[in-house]
Every structure is written in structure tokens, then in C-alpha cells.
Amino acid sequence: MDMSELIDPFARLIEDVCTPAAIRAIEEGGNTAPMWAAFTDSGFLDALVAEELGGASLSLADVAPLIALLGAHAVPLPVADTMVARAILAGAGLEIPAGPVAIATGTGPAPFGAVAAHILSGTPQAPVLTDARGQATGVHHDVDAYISGLDGAVLRPVAAIIRALLISGAAGRVMDMTVAYANERTQFGKPIGKQQAVQQQLSVLAEQAVAARIAAAIGARSGLFPRMLDAAIAKHGASLAAGQVSAIAHAVHGAIGISEEYDLQLLTRRLHGWRLSDGSESYWADVLGGLRIADRHAPTVDFIRAA
Fold first, then answer.
1. Which of 21, 73, 100, 209 has the fewest CB atoms within 10 Å, measured from its CB?
2. DSSP element (H, E) containing 281
């Protein structure tokens, strides 16, 4: 399959319905139905569902570029979560709901919990679907929510990989915006991007954006039921990158970067949220360390090669 046949129409869909104005409207409590209907009508929500169950039977690695696009455009709805949830529910023989589904794994606020109709918890073999009744985080314009009373810890690896893919897309977009700004903003008669100190910062930003993309790809390679090691590598690497990408982008942009009317903050707010969701870099570093210690007989070099 030519991946452009999958990616290009999805990119056009996002560009059409997920404009910055539409994102801001949803963050302010506006109606999510028109945007959600566009994703539902597109058929992409069943991309991961098995073909014999009415889906496209694509792998998580196949749809990874689509999830990255969702991150790159700060889509304020749980589209990627719903793709995964629909595949899990269909595989378990359960009815698939029409509305947006967020995945709650019990580590901090559930991403998109405030704009979801349903919450998925439980396990891949025995998923639990409940109506979304979350508690607001209190963060300005946040679409996440605290979900209590549910156990979704077994879903944490795949949820972490979703977050890593979203981070990779957002980091790439932030890099593009920051490089463009540095080449347009002049100071002392020349673009600030010509200054050596700024160039060094941009090179680190680019390095971290690429690192996030590689880490996320490692996570996606083992599918909807990922190896814990793959999930740990993905989320640890992506979360580390998220913090650095955001910091450098705002340093280069200066005050305008945090202005509400400027689009950079739509992305960097998401990066900070996704960095912590489903386990921060320190959480997954602990998991990685535990996996290494458990494999006592293999040299560290062999452990790294296998990973």
C-alpha cells in the first residue's frame, strides 16, 4: 500500500476541520460534534479494526504517521485513543460506541478526558467502557480530566505509545515554526537565525524532534499489544524531548510565543501535558531500569542491541 494514499487524505481532513480557530473554540467549551463527525465519516477511526470486523486491518506502525499528524495540528479530540479503543473493543466482541473514547490508565489526568463521551479502561482482553465523568484539571483551556475509580494500568503501554506519537508530531511542527520564526525575525539588521547562539539552540531542537520521532517509531513497531520495553523506550525518549523542544521554542520566540493569539502555545501546552500523561520520562526510566536489572545475565550492550 502506498502510504501517501493514507496520509494525504488524512492530512487534508485535519487541515479542513482542525483550524486554530476550531481548536480554540473547543478549548473554550464549544461544540465538538462537527469536528468529531468529520472524523467519523472519514472511516479512519476503524483503521486498526480487523478487516473481518469491518475495519482496515492496519497495524499501529501503519497508522503512526496519522497519529503524528494529530499531534502536529494539536487536534483537541481523542482521535488516536478512539482508533485504539475501537480495535480493542471489536477484538473483544463488544459494541463500539459512536462517540469519542479516551483511554484512562491511572497516571494523572486522562488526555482528552474532558471532551470524550466514553472512557476505556480494563485490559485488552477484557476492556471496560464507561461514560465519561471526569473532574476538570483546573488548567486554563485544558481538554484533559481526572478520571477516578477505574483500573486501566494494563493499557498504559499502548497509551504511552499513543502519547509518544502525538509528541513526535507536535515536536516536528514546533521545530518548523521556530526555524521559520528565527529566519523571519530580525534584530540588529539581520535574522536572529543567523546568530550562532540561536543556531546552536535550533540544532538541539532539531535533534530532540528527531529523537522523539525515532523513539515513537520504536514504540509503534510492536503493535496494539506492545512489549513493555518498546513502550518504555518510546515514552521515555519522547517525554524527554517534549520538555526540551518546548523550552527552546519559547526561548527563541520570546514573549510572543506565550501569547494566546499565537499558535505556538497550542502545541507546547499539549507537549507538556502529553509528556506527563501515561507516565513521565522518570516513570518510564524506572521501568527501563527494572527491565535491565531483570535480565541479569545479558551484557548491557546486548540488552541495548536487542532493544
1. 21
2. helix 281-294
